[in-house]
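Meet my pick.
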Amino acid sequence: MYNHSNDPSWLLTNASGAEQLPHGSPNGDPSRRKPGESCAMRNGAQARLIAEVARMYYEERRTQVEIATSLNVSQGTICRFLKRAEKQGIVRTTISPPVGTFVDLEELLERKFGLSQVIIAKAPSGSEESMQGAIGAAAAHFLEITLRPRAVIGVASWSASLLSMVEQMHPVWKVAECKVVQILGGEGHPSIEKHACYLVSQFARLVQGDAHFLPAPGLVASKEAADVLAQDPHVRETLELFDRITVALLGIGSLEPSPWLVGSGNTFSTEELQSLEEKGAVGNICLRFYNANGEEITDALGSNRVFGLKLERLKSIPMVVGIACGKRKRQAILGALRGRWINVLVTDQFTAESLAMA
C-alpha cells in the first residue's frame, strides 16, 4: 500500500469541494496523458482510495480520526469516502439473524396483516404445551421491555397462554403507578377461578401496579342480570377503567371452548355454539365471536350475556397484544388478524408459518 502520509499533495480539492489528484502525482500531469484518460484515471485512483479507506475502517476497525491521520487528510474527507463506499456498493451491509429468531417471517406477517409488531417464539416441538410455554416466555420478555409507567393494562384472565406469560415474567421495576384491569368477568368454578384471580393479581405485582377485578361471571344468565351487575359499585369501578386502557393482553379462542374455559363454567350451550357456527363464527376474543373475515357476529344468541369489554372498544386501544398458538386456533387467529382486532401478535414458528401461507 502506498503511504500517502509522506505525500500530503496526493489529494487536492477543487472549487466545488470534490477531491482530485494533483498534477504532481504519477497520473496528474495532463501532458503525459492520452486524450480521454484524465477523467478515467482520476476516478480510478479515487475508487482505489475509497476502497482502501473502507478496508481500514471496517476490516481493521480503525477510527476515522486514525485513518485521517494515517493518510494525512481531513476527517471530513474520510467520512465522505465512507459514504461513497456504501453508495457505490464497495461496502455492503449483511444482517445474519441469530439462530432461533425469525426476523424475515415476522416482517412478512407484519406487512401481510398490517401489524405494528410480530414476535415469533421458537417452540421446541409442535405440541400445544411446548408452543404455549414458548409464546408465554416471549410475551413476558416483550412486556418487560415495552411497558411504561402509569399504563392501564387490560387483561383477559381466562387464558392459559396469558397464565404461562405471567408465570415466566420477571418484575418490571422501571414502571410504576400501573393499573391492571380484568376485562372479562372473572367468577366461575372455584377450581378454575383461582387461576384467573392469580393471573391478574400476580401480573399487578410484577408491574408494581394495582389489580382491579371484575367480580362477575364472564357469561351471565341474561341481559337483565348483566344490567343489574353493572350497577354494583365494585363492578362499576372496574368498568369505568375500560375507557382508560392503553394496553390490552388477549388470548384468542377458537369456536370450541378450551378445557380451562369449560371448567370455569363460562361457556355457551351446545345449541348456542351450533348457532354461532351456522353464522360463520371461527373464533372469539373475550367471548365475543367473529367470522373468518374478522367481522363480529353481533346478533348471535347469547352475545348480550357476555359481561366484559366489547370487541369494538379494542379499536381505540393503542396496543392490543394477541397471544395465541396452535393448529386448532389457526382460523381464529386469522379472523382476529383480518378484523384488525389486534396490532401485536405473539405466536410460535409453526403457527406463524401456517399464517404466512393463508
